[in-house]
Specification:
Structural class: alpha+beta
Shape: elongated
Number of domains: 2
Number of helices: 7
Distance between the termini: 46 Å
Order of helices and strands: HHHEEHHEHEH
Largest sheet: 2 strands, antiparallel
Length: 150
């Protein structure tokens, strides 16, 4: 495997995190500040590595992360962890808080104003877990709410 560039990481993150937008080389190039041809070459490289899958709709080719591939899943996990490690301190703090649910929850997603602004009133998070763990999660949340300042 060749080295992954920062542009490839940014493109994959954008495609992975923005599920409501279909990305092709033209509209992704505007988001990344690259030329459409450079973006197309990058998308084809990511496709050849098994990270992205193309979908032809009309005359346009749209790309999505190929989540049936274990390699693509591992790559997505890696770049999301890399993004978390390189984030600002306020986000790192809440990521640390989310990690305490790691034993019980399958997925934890932090979103909302805390990810965008220094001034936030609440912290929005989604936890995905088994229904049988509901009582344990609620106890953990109650404990965390008592410890953390509002």
């Amino acid at each position: 495997m060749k080295d992954i560039t920062s542009s490839e990481i940014k493109a994959t993150l954008r495609i992975l995190k923005d599920l409501k937008t279909r990305y092709n080389a033209n509209n992704l190039s505007k988001e990344l500040g690259m030329t459409p041809m450079g973006t197309l070459k990058m998308l084809k490289r990511l496709h050849n590595q098994g990270i992205l899958k193309p979908e032809l709709i009309g005359k346009s080719t749209y790309y999505s992360v190929y989540l049936k591939s274990n390699y693509a899943k591992d790559f997505a996990r890696f770049i999301l962890q890399k993004e978390a490690e390189e984030s600002v301190p306020r986000i790192k703090r809440w990521i640390t808080e989310l990690r305490c649910f790691g034993e019980t929850a399958t997925i934890g997603i932090l979103f909302g104003s805390v990810t965008r602004s220094e001034r936030y009133n609440d912290v929005d998070m989604v936890l995905v877990y088994d229904a049988k763990d509901n009582r344990k999660i609620n106890e953990m949340l109650k404990e965390r709410n008592e410890i953390n300042v509002k």
